[in-house]
Amino acid sequence: MSNMETHPTEVRCGAGEEGAPAAGVEILTARDVPLGGPRAMTVRRTLPQRARTLIGAWCFADHYGPDEVSRSGGMDVAPHPHIGLQTVSWLFSGEIEHRDSVGSHALVRPGEVNLMTGGHGISHSEVSTPDTTVLHGVQLWVALPSEHRDTAPAFQHHVPAPVALDGGEARVFLGSLAGDTSPVGTFTPLLGAEVTLAPGATVTLDVDPGFEHGVLVDSGDVRVDGTVVRPAELAYAAPGRRTLALTNAASGAARLVVLGGPPFPEEIVMWWNFVGRTHDEIAAARADWENEAERFGRVEGYPGDRLPAPALPNATLSPRRNPRP
Q1: Each residue of 124-168: pLDDT tens digit?
Q2: Angle (CA) 176 12 18, round 5°
Q3: Strand partners, 256
Q4: Which of 122, 177, 181, 314 has minimal CB crowding within 10 Å?
């Protein structure tokens, strides 16, 4: 998915020190961002923000729906570019047609993960299908480390099997959790999983103490290590934990997405749909897109024009850091 803000926020960030002891759970609230046009589909964005810009290598999190497509118009994101990142698409309901410049033509369906590697440069489009009545899901980005950020673009698809938990269920789309491991390749250690909780249930997950974790609540009131996290909020838990206790405090079922990874050791500059290291690198990628450079290829089959890049800010992209734990 594209960041379609007219004036996208510039972000330069670095993670805190590794090995910090576990601390309290920090709650990150979302801001609403319209995805362009008079009938814009609105997403709730929890990463990046001033309070925190990275959780592991996870650098972007949009949560959307449930949206009645008859009212919102659904998703129609024209071809747009990416560099230096991987996009992770995960749906709860609906269906999205994906096309990209490496020739992939795939459907994003509930419970199936599509991971696209931008690397040196890729472009893609995303359109909800005509049969979609309710669109609901998350769009996530992962920053690539320096040694891999110019890697060749690629596309992967995986359907994780449900894993039974005592009081819930997990679907592990990246990394390892609850005895299951995803085969999807990433360039830093990562965790990504959908977890559902039965009413009143508590599930205690064994997690990597070297990871920081994020819990994005989709439905229900969930307690993360005792801290209440409401729908659309993202809970941050610092490294040092060996377990993560999730309690459904609602009368109905709860659903959430668990993210994790070791603190990202590099500074990154993120603007629009690009993740780089310097202002000049971002400016060069923008110029390449506007000049239809070969690095971004072409998306075949989309019935319309591609997205133009927004104007760069008049100043050098400014630094922003995660707070130290």
Answers
A1: 999 999 999 999 999 999 999 999 999 999 999 999 999 999 999
A2: 45
A3: 195, 217
A4: 314
Q: Are the CB atoms for 140 and 259 separated by under 8 Å? A: yes
Provide the residue range defining the domain that includes 198: 23-261
Q: Is 10 part of any domain?
A: no
CATH of residue 242: 2.60.120.10
- Length reported for the chain: 325
What tens digit of pLDDT does each residue of 91-106 get? 999 999 999 999 999 9
Q: Are 102 and 297 in contact (CB under 8 A)?
A: yes
Q: Is the pTM of this model over 0.85?
A: yes
Residues sharing a CB contact under 8 Å with residue 172, sequence separation 6 or more, in sequence order: 160, 163, 178, 180, 181, 182, 191, 192, 193
Q: Which of 149, 97, 94 is nearest to 120 (CA)?
A: 149
| Better-predicted residue by pLDDT, 2 or 115 | 115
Residues 205 and 243 sit within 8 Å (Cβ to Cβ): yes
- DSSP letter assigned to residue 318: P
